[in-house]
Amino acid sequence: MCGGLLSGVVYNLLVIALVVEVVVGGFFGDEGKGSVVGYLSLKDNPAICVRGGVGPNAGHTVIYRGKEYRMRQIPSGVINEKCRLLIGPGVLVNPNVIFDEIKRYSIDPRRVGIDRKAGIIESGHIDRERGSKHLKDKIASTLSGCGEANVDRARRKLRLAEEIESLKKFITDVPEEIWEAIDNKKTVIVEGTQGTFLSLFHGTYPYVTSKDVCASAICSDVGIGPKHVDEVIVVFKSYVTRVGTGPLPGELSWDEIKRRGWEEYGTVTRRPRRAAPFNFDLARRAVKLNSATQIALTKLDILFPKTAHVRSWDELSKEAKDFILEIERRLGVPVTIIRTGPDVGDTIDRREHV
Ligand code: GTP
Ligand code: IMP
Ligand code: MG
Q: How many angstroms separate the CA atoms of 17 and 12, rounded?
């Protein structure tokens, strides 16, 4: 069976105690958080899936039953119709993006709640970013207005969601909703954005986003303290990708990326993603910075094509198993969720098989 760090005793306890799980990126974003949150939102049946993080600079992809969701604002728990979809007070909201997602994916608007204190991105923020050579050329920002809106928030002149008439029907107190769910022993999934090394504090400054995006910041974004968190799941891709500028240790040439079949394009900007092999030094740091209790590993099928669509540990090739066991050994954290294809169902859940 699984071997590695998992033991039946440890994991049975973990399942019973599971209430609040936080999912964050361990590299430079685009690790596949959307697909991991999508899987958990079906499997763990959360009452709430709540987005922390920066705002609509993110692009999370979920593919379920042949339908592809590309979400910039609404949480990836969208695919479980019983799940309430919340956006925390620390997150920036572009109302146009919200309305577009609700319409495009036929989301019942009664499922969506935006905290009254969420900050609002206005066209002026986007214009200012588009006019900034520094952001465009040096930082390779997504130019979605997030950084400029956060500047206004720090200046205490940003408008908040409660002031926007068109958002009125979505306005709620997100921390209150989460605390109530926790008190009633319901599961809450907290979805982060970007990745550890795009954090304003812990990343490769200045080539970073406009906020901290590690697990503790994501919790703060939605209004829960560290003692409410049961599991921190750090998501790693089986190799490392980065869009835009900034250091990427072990970076491969585009020819080599293509030869390995690792080519990818950004969800929001469609820019080609730079790539490098899995980096244990970065991963170890991400585990520490986020206090990871579990690791989710995505795109194993891209690294080892024989693993495509495999849904049980036993069916994995030896080299794939060895790679996972090496991650567990070197990082000291169990790899519990393994993704082997684009569909949410292409997942090995080792929480069950021990
Ligand atoms: P986050 O921003 O972290 O949510 O990631 P993303 O959704 O931007 O990730 P990415 O662009 O890497 O994922 C986009 C595509 O990869 C989507 O079509 C996903 O369904 C797909 N995907 C996710 N996990 C896997 C996987 O394990 N294997 C394969 N082949 N595709 C995957
Ligand atoms: P900004 O946050 O849009 O200003 O972008 C700052 C940096 O973070 C740029 O290098 C972007 O490419 C990167 N970035 C921001 N959001 C994401 C994301 O969701 N995935 C990957 N990179 C991102
Ligand atoms: Mg993305």
A: 9
Query: Which protein residue's CA is at the shortest distance from atom 20 of ligand 2?
Result: 29
Checking if the pLDDT of 157 tops 50, the result is yes
Q: What 3-state DSSP class applies to 86?
A: strand
134 annotated active-site? no
Residue ID of nearest Cα to ligand 2 atom 1: 141
Q: Whose CA is nearest to atom 19 of ligand 2?
A: 58
Regarding the beta carbon of 25 and ligand 1, being less than 6 Å apart is answered yes
Report whether 218 contacts 225 (CB < 8 A). no
CA atoms within 13 A on the CB side of 333: 24
Helix (H) or strand (E) holding 202: none
Tell me, in angstroms, the distance from the centre of ligand 2 to residue 330's CA: 29
| Number of residues assigned to the chain | 354
Q: Is the CB of 24 inside a 6 Å radius of any atom of ligand 1?
A: no
Shortest-distance atom of ligand 1 to CA 241: 12
Adjacent-strand bridge partners of 345: none
Distance CA 74, CA 24 (A): 16
Task: Provide mean pLDDT across the span 79-85.
Answer: 98
Q: DSSP letter for 84, please.
A: E
Q: Which tens digit of pLDDT belongs to each residue from 42-53?
A: 999 999 999 999
Quickly tell me which residue has 């991650």 as its tokens: 327
Any atom of ligand 1 within 6 Å of the Cβ of 59: yes
Do the strands 347-349 and 335-339 form a parallel or antiparallel pair, or are they unpaired?
antiparallel
| Contact yes or no for 334/328 (Cβ under 8 A) | yes
Is 194 touching ligand 1 by the criterion CB < 6 Å?
Answer: no
Q: Alpha helices of 198-317 — where are they, by DSSP H?
A: 215-222, 254-260, 280-290, 300-303
The verdict on whether omega for the bond into residue 206 sits within 30 degrees of 0, i.e. cis, is yes
